[in-house]
């Protein structure tokens, strides 16, 4: 039973563009675009687009390009990226492209940036793992300086260039365009120091742990030197991403998600483990990738009780209430993780919109 009070919430949908066995690239794109248009029709406030490289875990290599397309085929819903990896793109190029997207979208985009977590991508692009943190910091310095100071040069460890001015200029302040993506390793305080909203993605943890992390963020904001109106603006744009699936019953939500999640879990694990030698790449990642491991019933029941939000409408509303009471105003459910069938994903989106959202948006 949903109880308590708090600020009204907004809800988005996450679109991962995953390519599990049995799907084609064209099918994945067609299904995700159908979901995006359906999200707008159902009244979701935002849709979120990914960027990854080289693997079937996600087959969207450019979130900004994809966002430009989605802006063109929608009319109201906000379009977000989750996330653009600043370690893998030149910050000046990003500053130009992001500002242009802000302009042509009429300010309808939210661009979440981060430094990535998939080790093989760094290797393939020639980025040392221990360099991603300082590269991200320099890139963010460059973007913020370029957008606010006019012609701006930089002389750092990873980037160096003479004073340049990027076009077009952004139509909004940086903290109204950018969101700082945070996973399990980035201190939340860093987002506050940068004056950027928080994008919190810790979907494997219990919802209570996510809520506690967000409460720490709220407390840190109020303890910071930021003015009350600045704190309010950051809280109004900060979001939390969660795994989700809604079905008429809890058992069905868990059953239809189990095999797809096992594939997702295996692919993700392979991309987060130490990278093999170059001679072993093809064998390890493509010819004979790690096979999904069946999750036993006891573990699955434990995982889906409070971390993987695969449940019925009432249970989902209870989970959302936990986040609301922690001060979360924007939640992005990732429905269909691992390749849940399209009809089940669309039904989940509808059940969430009809039976969960009204409890927090009216």
Structural commentary:
With 362 residues, the protein is α/β, with parallel strands linked by helices. Helix content is 49%, strand content 16%. The protein contains 15 helices and 11 strands. The chain has helices at 25-42, 63-73, 91-104, 119-124, 132-149, 174-177, 188-194, 207-223, 228-237, 250-272, 281-287, 297-306, 313-325, 342-356, 358-361; strands at 10-14, 46-49, 78-85, 109-114, 152-155, 160-164, 178-182, 198-201, 239-246, 309-311, 330-335. The protein has an 8-stranded parallel barrel with strand order 1-2-3-4-7-8-9-11, surrounded by 9 helices. Helix 1 links the parallel strand 1 and strand 2 (46-49). The longest helix has 23 residues, at 250-272. The radius of gyration is 20 Å and the shape is globular. The chain starts with 9 loop residues before the first strand and ends with a helix. The mean pLDDT is 94.
């Amino acid at each position: 039973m949903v109880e308590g009070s708090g600020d009204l919430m907004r809800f988005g949908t996450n679109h991962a563009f995953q390519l599990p066995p049995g799907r084609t690239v064209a099918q994945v794109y067609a299904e995700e675009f159908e979901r995006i248009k359906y999200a707008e029709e159902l009244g979701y406030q935002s849709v979120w687009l990914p960027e990854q490289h080289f693997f079937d875990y996600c087959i969207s290599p450019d979130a900004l390009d994809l966002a430009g397309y989605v802006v063109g085929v929608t009319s109201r819903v906000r379009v977000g990226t989750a996330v653009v990896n600043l370690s893998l793109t030149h910050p000046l190029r990003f500053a130009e492209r992001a500002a242009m997207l802000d302009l042509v979208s009429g300010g309808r985009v939210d661009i979440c940036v981060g430094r990535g977590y998939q080790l093989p991508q760094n290797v393939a692009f020639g980025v040392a793992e221990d360099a991603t943190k300082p590269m991200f910091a320099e890139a963010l310095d460059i973007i913020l300086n370029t957008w606010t100071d006019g012609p701006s040069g930089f002389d750092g460890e990873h980037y160096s260039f003479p004073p340049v001015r990027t076009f077009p200029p952004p139509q909004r302040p940086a903290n109204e365009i950018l969101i700082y993506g945070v996973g399990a390793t980035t201190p939340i305080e860093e987002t506050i120091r940068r004056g950027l909203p928080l994008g919190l993605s810790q979907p494997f943890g219990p919802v209570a742990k996510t809520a506690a992390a967000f409460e720490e963020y709220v407390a840190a904001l109020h303890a910071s030197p930021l003015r009350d109106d600045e704190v309010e603006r950051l809280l109004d744009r900060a979001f939390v991403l969660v795994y989700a699936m809604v079905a008429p019953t809890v058992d069905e939500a868990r059953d239809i998600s189990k095999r797809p999640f096992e594939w997702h879990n295996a692919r993700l694990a392979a991309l987060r483990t130490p990278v093999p030698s170059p001679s072993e790449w093809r064998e390890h990642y493509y010819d004979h990738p790690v096979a999904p491991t069946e999750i036993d019933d006891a573990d699955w029941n434990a995982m889906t009780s409070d971390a993987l939000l695969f449940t019925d409408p009432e249970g989902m509303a209870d989970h959302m209430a936990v986040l609301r009471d922690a001060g979360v105003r924007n939640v992005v459910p990732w429905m269909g993780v691992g390749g849940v069938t399209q009809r089940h994903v669309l039904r989940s989106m509808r059940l969430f919109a009809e039976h969960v959202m009204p409890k927090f948006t009216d």
